[in-house]
Design a protein that fits this description.
single chain; alpha/beta; 6-stranded parallel beta sheet; 6-stranded mixed beta sheet; elongated
Amino acid sequence: MARVGIRDVAVLAGVAVGTVSNYLNHPDRVSADKAERIRAAIDSLGFVPSNAGRQLRLGVSSAIGYIAPDVSNPYFAEIAESVELRASELGFTVFLANSHRNRDRENDYIQLFEQYRVQGLLMSSHLPVEDRLAQVRRRGTPSVLVGQRGQSDEQPSVSLDEVSGGRQAMQHLIEIGCRRLLFVGGPLDIPQVSGRLAGAGEVVREFGAATLEVMDEPDRTVRGGKRIGAALLSRPADMMPDGIFAANDLLALGIMNALVAGGVEVPRQTAIVGYDDIEFAEASLIPLTTVAGRHDGFGIAVVDLLFDAIGGNAIAAPHRMFEPQLVVRASTGRG
């Protein structure tokens, strides 16, 4: 079925195409009689106006773009929700894109959003991206880096103190008596993962009477966690870690699922800590101890910082860093 166009509306209403255009963009220029005929024609035909052409002519839009690495991860979905709510309060729409952690997809979406003249970009990436955003900024589209601290003061960012989060997780495991410790996450050169590992490692070195093993698992999903859990189950009992810190909750839940199915008692034999505090962490059969970022405040800060940049306002503190907080539940013996 052919799409109804502005010419179809004009023919049915008995007016010129320009009059329909004025009705859509400058209604004060159209008489009441013609406006009523045009409205009736639009209703009858089911015509849906397109803003794309108008936005390209004026060089503006009422939208911002948000490129996330994995919207199937509830952590990014929660950030996207708070971003959308805050942007809506300010009268803007959010276009959400899923890059699947792929550099080519990131570049394609950046180009697409530029073509649609979005007011600004929110970029969450596990890859170096500041040079690309600098090019976009020079062409007039400001951006905020989400979840990773910007290296340049020219690039505003909102992030978590990942080192602090890693310290809190590992300090908790040591305080409850764990000594054979394991960190699971990857790739290890991703700033978020390396920061969490750095914090955990600092605590173990300071304590001195524990060991820390590291398993690089780039698939930070429940599937990846189950694969790690299966590998751990194949070990002799004296090689099994008594405390596990996973780089995110999905990994932690997958590990816990595999270990419990294999007969390991959590937390009596192995305590487990995740990261992100997604909804499923608390709803798990064994509620998961985790390190929580401030999702609502995080999303608000991201949008507000972007709108300061869009408005050309001076940004005294271009880098906002939130302090994560340990949430203790049954997977480490409480809750």
